[in-house]
Fold this protein.
Amino acid sequence: MPTSSNATRGARLALLGVLVLTPALVLTQGSAQFRERRVVVTPPGPWTGARLPDGQPDVEGFWSNTIGNHNNLTDPQGRGAADDGPPREGPARPRRAQAGPQEKAPSRISDPADGEVPFQPWARARAQEFAAHLNDPTRPEYVEPFARCAPGGPTKSFMWHGYEIRQYPGYVVFLFDSGNRVIHLDGKPAPPETIKEWNGESRGRWDGNTLVVHVTNHNAKARLGRSGEFVSADAAVEERFVFDPAGERFTYHATYTDPSVLTRPFTITIPNKRVTVDTPVDDWNNQTFHANFPTPRAAGEPPLLEAYERICVEGNEGHGNPAAAPQP
Amino acid sequence: MNTLGRPALLAAVVLAVSGATLAAQRTGDPATLPRTADGRPDLSGIWQALSGPEFDIEAHGPRKDTPPGLGIVEGGAIPYTPQGLARRQRNFAARATADPRNKCFTLGVLRGTYSGEPFQIFQRPRDLTLLYQFGHPARTIHTNGTRHPDGHIDFWLGDSRAGWEDDTLVVDVNDFNGETWLDRAGNHASDQLHVVERWRLLDANTLEYRATLDDPAVYTRPWSLSVLLHRRREPNAQVLENYCYTLDYDRYYPVPPASTSVAPDGSGAEKAPRRTAARRSR
């Protein structure tokens, strides 16, 4: 991306009051036009952007996280134990050990300040055990559930491929690469806690530019990263989706409170950016294609984006037999 | 007019109005249907079939694994080719293990609609989203004038492009992968299947679903099925997660206990799955 374009974007974001918490380089090649190394945080405030007929802020469309994937919760660009992550960010990308500190995105743990999950000692040991065996899964529980097509859970779903938001009176619906999720705004109480779900039950409300969601009924089976972090099914989860009224970005915050596993609550922060017709299709952040209109669209009217269906487990081949598995 | 005449007349009028109202509800009087802001019938809500077509869409007597049912195939029987019928008979014999539903695979456009588990319709002017409880996949029915993508794509849920004919949503569906069944009895179609669906509200709480299936590889002629879907009206009704395919392995993922990790099972390493559904096959 040309420098002038970066400058334009920077000026626009500054005008919007978007805070850049951690100065770092913005990559400038290939898929890096979308992917970034800095955490851009949208501040909470009033919603001044477009609204849907039911009054909700209009945040519909395709989105994706901008940094890394789910390989490593606290080192978003780190490979963690696995190495099947997003496309390499340009041929000249330095290895981790060679990357300067200014290029390193911070931990997704924005609180506490040390960027680590405040585990009780036994729980940290369990997380480390999982990470140590990720590529040596000598027990079934070491196979990361995502690898079996399980939904990613309320937070890890935002560290994976791009996804879509659709809105309706009473609902915000997330269509993820693995699994889907309905945020109820309709006041319907959550089901009894005897019902546990991978993505849990979500009850939300809009507060200015922020969608505030309480997640209950989650089964806590989806780890928070391939790095093994976890909470229990009793953890209270509050999410805050803070949307930039210009519609370009939002910041996801999830605060986990779980006295059975943690010494204190912690918050995960994940920056997200809108996928547009100008976003390079990389089969990672952007998995969309242009809708097939019967006639060319009118001048100035952008193509309409659609996504292929995302159905995972049924397409498995060679599962459990890697040597025979065709390459994707 | 005598004094007896007025009540009698009133009663007659009331009867006439009530009868008219009932008839309107049965026949989809446009004035009684819920509508969206753009004036289309509002199909949003949670729907479920009650007539049991999941077991066998053709009329059938009781079997040990199947209650008797009248079926939903118009005309009674599916017009299979000899090869199509033979495949159906093989499917039926092996249904306990061969039924994709028993592998927790996506049920498909037709079976997902009348499987007996609820699904939710979310409606916007540009599309409808159907979120099925079983397997929890989402299907999009586009109503924005777009056409099917070029070429054939193997989709579990096909590709759906629709328009409104008066108050009926008419959906053209192709790009099937041929892997789904139509019921537990092994009725089936190939990837050449072409479906035209007609969705019509009969009243606020009853949705008529009619589908015409054409598949020269399996049927001698197009045929139709029709089923009524009923709105789930319990105050707490909602679609729950049913990621059925996780049930075989979720026992391996207890929240890690403080004492020891779970006992070793001994089964070996597995690799991240191949993801195929989103890719064009031809």
